[in-house]
Amino acid sequence: IGIAGIGKSRLAWEFEKYVDGLLQLFPWHRGRCLAYGEGVTYWALAEMVRMRARIVEAEEPATAYAKLRATIEEYVHDPDEREWIEPRLAHLLGLEDRNARDPEDLFSAWRLFFERLSEDGPTILIFEDMQWADPSLVDFVDYLMNWSKNHPIFVLVLARPDFVDKHPTWGAGRRGYTTQYLEPLSQETMDELLAGLVPGLPAQLRAKILDRAEGVPLYAVETVRMLLDRGLLVQEGSAYRPTGPVEDLEVPETLQALIAARLDGLETAERRLIQDAAVVGKTFTKASLAALTGLAETEIETVLSSLLRKEFLSLQADPRSPERGQYGFLQDLVRRVAYDTLSRKDRKARHLAAAAYLASSWGSEDDEVVEVVAAHYLEAYHAAPDAPDAPAIKVKARDALVSAGRRAQSLAAGEEARRYYEQAIELTDDPLQRAELDERAGRMARAGGRFDEAVAHYESAMALFEAAGKSHPAARVSAAYADLIRDLGRGEEALERMQAAFAVLSGEQPDADLATLAAQLGRLLHFTGRGDEALASIELALTIAEALLLPEVLSQALNTKAIILLAAGRIQESLVLLQHALQVALDNDIPDAALRAYNNIGAAMNDRDDHDEELAVTARMVDLARRVGDRTWERRGGLGGLTPLLYVGRWDEGLALYAEFVEAGEVETRSILTELSTVPPIFVWRGELEAAREVIDSMSPMRDSTDIQERSTYDCAKAWVLLGEGKDAEALEVGRKAFETGVQLGVRGPCAKEGLTAMMEAALALSDVGTVERQLLLIDGLRPGEIAPYIAAQAFRWRARLGALQRASQLDTFFEKAADRFREINMPFWRAVTQLEHGEWLVSCEREVEAKPLFDQAREAFKRLKARPWLDRLARAAGELPELSQAPTG
Q1: pLDDT of 692-719, one tens digit each?
Q2: 736, 722 Cβ separation under 8 angstroms
């Protein structure tokens, strides 16, 4: 980090020279962020990929694609990985049209490409001028550092201090990040630098230069260049000497003034050419200057050679660089000063010429320079907004900004897309066009987490469409608005809006808008407990999706239909639909739908109490989430493994996983919180009540949710904490509420099972025989396929516990069947609980000898699970047996 002229580029150059002198080869990549607006999306990264593939700027697409494919084949050996990486790198370079749904879809492929490069040796990535970086590029560098921390990838970022102002927390407190601030050089060092450059410089002049330089090396270097321009210095070897007396030289006070003085000293043709070049950018070609000036390239070449000699410009000769053969300013500050010397009239003309040249030389407006074209048109308009031709330029600027927004949106760069659409809105007079742009900006704002801005854009779009009598687009935007406010906790209003939008769209010709809305509405209706209405909506979505070939809607609607059937107890049919939803998503490269299908397949395995298979499905889901770089689904999948880990007795793994997510600050969203219901009971059964309370507090946003899954999940967890606190009566009511709500999602579902279990544990603790008998009668009324194996096992145990309360005899069969069932479905904790309770009952029947092996087996399980309260209870029960008087207590 350092101000202009402090030596950032020199530092990178010295580093490159050092690396070049080592025996080992280091794959080297350099990319520069463009100073247009707030950055051109991923430009620096695209330069790095072009550099690796030896693709020059504006190369023919077919040739460029062939080079890219050859490069990928050289470094990526796995065919599946190549298939994943190639279209996403081609998209980055503008060689393929795609629409990424989220940044991680692209980030994961780009990251994987550099990881495979690093397998051949430590890989170096140099990002220059990061103060101009688009926000998405900053996110990618952060993503790369986070995900690829175990790969030998070295990233060097060069930026001015305003980068830190824009991103104050970037890299803060993170492993692998080191920030180095380049401070001004000391007076002694600057004196040594100047003496080395110009050994014979008079002391008075040297002192004046040092005083004005204020420790900035570029000032001293530019002063020397100024002296060279005026013929006052001559080069001898690597140093310069005065050609005569220079004591009376007037030295400008600032670096900008010094550069301006050098520019004033140029020949007229040189100054005009460098001004033209300043409009094009930090680097440029002879062809681009010819387009701006109207001169032949041969005429330009003479002037360029003079500017090279005078050290205003440099020539890129690196054969690896995509900019090879291009000219560039030695310092961007020189370009800025040269640009500022242009009149507004000249700026306008040159920007228009630059835009026309780029549009013609790079091809269609859908390629990677469309954002640069938009920036030129915008600058041309702002240079003379009241000119006669301003309206026509304004239209061109608006259209270019919309194209830039689409390009950024296709790259899942939502922040940049939003900015372009908002700029286009400011240039739009037509209400309908403005409404369309507000809708796009709203979608991008939501994707970027800017919810207030998204609400404002959606509301503006709805008002403009309605004022124009356009009910269809108004309803479409209303549906998107409803989906947004649902996530903001306004569930009832969201449902009303969706239904109103559905009423409008369903009265017209079925299209993709109606299909998407019907799928969304069906999902929302299901989770508000209105299954019949949900199914009707989903059937409509499926009908339209089949007819219009909408794979994403098809997969998502099949997902929702499957969980509706799952709630109805039709597990086999549900699994068939989920498997096909998964296949459709995978075949059409729709990761979000595929991850949802994996998640719901895991839920079906839970309903079957097949927790080993549930863990296997969850592992596949996490693998896909990591491959596509979807952190939310990775976290959800990881924490989703807690439930089967609890059931199969792998508590240490589950709690370690939970602690890892908490430490990383990654347990916050509703979708993540719903996976935490099994954490509180583990803490309760280990006697760690305070930890259980902390989890419940974190889950509190779900307590009064309109989503029945969220509400019942919270109540299940809360009931177990209340049981741990000895508040059995409260636990009974909360457990009853969890069960009654959870049943709406399926009698075999986790909310129903855990709600019922918590309620029955509380009822048995209270000796509430009536509640226990009523619930057992309810279970007896279920058909075989409606009873989850877990509940069947618990039912045997509850009958045994009820019999013990009623002092019944011949309860062994109930206890034994319960223990056998728990063993069959691999639930060691509940098997141990059953054995302990069986032993306690045997002791009460004076059958101590039969109790001992049961206590021994239960103790072994509780020790492994570190279930201290249960070990204490077992010790008390075993203490009544003389031969077990030395039983351990913990």
Answers
A1: 999 999 888 888 888 888 899 999 999 9
A2: no
Picking from 84-93, 487-496, 514-523, which range would have the lowest pLDDT averaged per residue? 487-496
Residue 713, amino acid: T
pLDDT at 247 over 80: no
Alpha-carbon distance 98 to 526, whole Å?
Answer: 33
Identify the residue whose tokens are 């908002």.
Answer: 422
CB 623 within 8 A of CB 767: no
What are the beta bridge partners of residue 241? 234
| CB under 8 A, 24+ apart: contacts of 382-388 | 383/344, 383/345, 383/347, 383/348, 383/351, 384/344, 384/345, 384/348, 387/348
pLDDT at 595 over 80: yes
Return the residue matching tokens 């990424």: 100
Q: What sign has the CA pseudo-torsion 228, 230, 233, 234?
A: positive
688: left (phi over 0), alpha (psi -120 to 50) or beta: beta
Task: Answer yes or no: are the C-beta atoms of 842 and 809 closer than 8 Å.
Answer: no
Q: Which are the contacts of 781, defined by CB distance < 8 A and separation ≥ 6?
A: none
DSSP β-bridge partners for residue 283: 328
Report the candidate in 745, 28, 728, 90 with the shortest Cα–Cα distance to residue 320: 28
CB contact set of 875 (below 8 Å; sequence gap of 6+): 887, 888, 889
Read off the DSSP letter of residue 185: P
Bridge-based pairing of strands 239-242 and 233-236 is antiparallel
DSSP annotation of 246: -
C-beta pairs of 669-674 under 8 Å, 24+ apart in sequence: 669/632, 670/487, 670/701, 670/702, 670/705, 670/707, 670/710, 671/632, 671/636, 672/632, 672/635, 672/636, 672/639, 673/698, 673/699, 673/701, 673/702, 673/710, 673/713, 674/702, 674/709, 674/710, 674/713
Identify the CA nearest to 565 among candidates 534, 542, 606: 534
Q: Residue 78 is encoded by which pair of tokens?
A: 């796995």
Distance from C-alpha of 80 to C-alpha of 83, rounded to nearest angstrom: 5
pLDDT of amino acid 569: 83
Give me the sign of the Cα torsion angle 300, 305, 310, 316.
positive
DSSP string for 602-625: HHHHHHTT-HHHHHHHHHHHHHHH
Distance, CA of 843 to CA of 846 (rounded, Å): 5
Nearest to 855 by CA among 824, 876, 826: 876
Cβ-Cβ contacts under 8 Å for 402 (sequence gap 6 or more):
420, 421, 424, 437
Phi-psi region of 41 (alpha: psi -120 to 50; beta: other; left: phi over 0): beta
Cβ-in-10-Å burial (0-12, 13-18, 19+) of 269 comes to middle
Who's near 871: CB < 8 A, 6+ residues apart? 859, 862, 863, 888, 889, 890
Dist. CA 136–CA 131, nearest whole Å? 13
Residues 6+ apart with CB under 8 A from 518: 502, 506, 537, 538, 540, 541, 544, 557
Q: Which residue has the tokens 């430009």?
A: 43
DSSP SS3 for 355:
helix
Q: pTM of the full predicted structure?
A: 0.70
Residue 883 dihedral angles phi and psi, to the nearest 5°: -70, -10
- What is the Cα–Cα distance from 846 to 842, expressed in whole angstroms? 6
Which amino acid belongs to residue 783?
R
Using DSSP's 3-state secondary structure scheme, residue 198 falls into: coil
Residue 551 token pair? 């794979």
Any idea which of 138-142, 184-188, 222-226 has the lowest mean pLDDT? 222-226
Q: Are 724 and 763 in contact (CB under 8 A)?
A: no
For residue 665, how far is the Cα from the chain centroid?
Answer: 15
| In the predicted structure, residue 64 carries a pLDDT above the cut 50 | yes
pLDDT the model gives residue 365: 45
Backbone angles phi, psi at 325, to 5 degrees: 85, -5
